Amino acid sequence: MAKAPKVARAHPLAGRQFAGNGVTLAPVDIASRVSLRAEAGALADIGKLLGFALPTRPKTSAAKGRRTALWLGPDEWLITDATNQRLAATLAKAEPAGCSVVDIAHRNTAIEVSGPNAAAALNAGCPQDLRAAAFAVGAASRTVLAKAEIVLLRTGEDAFRVECWRSFADYVWTYLVDAAKSA
Amino acid sequence: MLLIRCPYCEEERPELEFAGAGEAHIARPANMSDISDEDFEAFFFIRENQKGIVFERWRHIHGCGRFFNAARHSVSDKFIVTYKAGEPKPELTDEQIAAVAGATGKSGK
Ligand SMILES: [Zn+2]
After folding, report:
1. Residue extents of the structural domains in chain A
2. 20 to 30 Å CA-CA from A36: which of A91, A107, B86, B102?
3. Please, what CATH class does the domain formed by A32-103 belong to?
4. The pLDDT of residue B107
């Protein structure tokens, strides 16, 4: 059998940074990511493996340590683990209970958007209401940023995490830099 | 921009997150290979295309991903109500219809 080639995992936004106009952009480090689809009957098992209960209300997230679960739909979650542990392998133990665990660590990347004008910069391309009353700290949602689909998580009053597909990263980054310049 | 209430996200969201998916409440025949060409044509091609109240499928494609149904006015483009897939066609009151039948698409709601 042929030996599998070793592939180095490069960050699609390595070395980029931007700060100005009250907006700071920073590539988020490589992390574990899982796309989870689960039936109601599997949620308890997944919660045990995860270490906390999955959020079940729309536009919410739950977190413990550096692990975060984002509600995307009635049976769909995005789970990230910044310590880059083998999250998919851990959660796959719940599959017999009625769920599907797909490792998307290499599909997504993320950008942290922070600063007093962070929401304004995002709203240049994201049509959601990002005022604190509508999108509080911890709120999470799949949405759009201009022509790209993103998942948005509010990590603080003035801080957001933008998850996007790796192949969209250059577009999303460039768009946010332009938006920040005119924020 | 239209604001569309997603019955799964339980709030109004911008139209850019949605995709329309044609007429709602079209039952796919269970005995597809037995039905006549005329019946197949009626199922597959013939649509109401009403001027006025229409029942449509929509998908919150860049949100929760779910298909759902909506009652809407095809002249004013205003939504009357949205409801989860699988739920019956809602009974619409005269007031609800009057509220959307007026001048075309201003608030979009
Ligand atoms: Zn939705």
Report:
1. 18-29+107-182, 32-103
2. B86
3. alpha beta
4. 45
Give the other-Cβ count within 10 Å of A78's Cβ. 21
Per-block mean pLDDT, blocks of 10 residues, chain B (109 long) = 95 97 93 95 93 96 98 95 96 92 54
Check residue B109 and give its pLDDT: 42
If one looks up domain A18-29+107-182 in CATH, what number appears?
3.30.1360.120
Quote the pLDDT of residue B108.
Answer: 43
- Look at residues A160, A161, A164, A165 and name the one whose alpha carbon lies nearest to residue A119: A160
User: Tens digits of per-residue pLDDT, B65-82?
Assistant: 999 999 999 999 999 999
> Does B67 reach chain A within 8 Å, measured CB to CB?
no
Q: How far is the CA of B70 from the centre of ligand 1 (A)?
A: 13
The interface pTM score, or ipTM, of the predicted complex is: 0.92
3-state secondary structure of B63: coil
| Residue B8 in contact with partner chain A when CB distance is under 8 A | yes
Residues of chain B contacting A141 with CB distance shorter than 8 Å: 9, 63
Q: Which residue of A has its CA nearest to B13?
A: A128
For residue A181, what pLDDT is reported?
95
β-strands A76-81, A32-38: how paired?
Answer: antiparallel
Does A74 sit within 8 Å of B17, measured CB to CB? no
Q: Do B62 and A143 lie within an 8 Å CB cutoff?
A: yes
For the domain made up of B3-104, the CATH class stated in words is alpha beta
With CB atoms and an 8 Å threshold, state whether A127 touches B14.
Answer: yes
**Which residues are within 5 Å of ligand 1 (an ion), measured at CB?**
B 6, 8-9, 60, 63-64
- Least Cα distance to A162 among A150, A176, A170, A173 occurs for A150
CA distances from B17 to A9, A159, B20, B64, B68 (A): 32, 22, 10, 9, 13
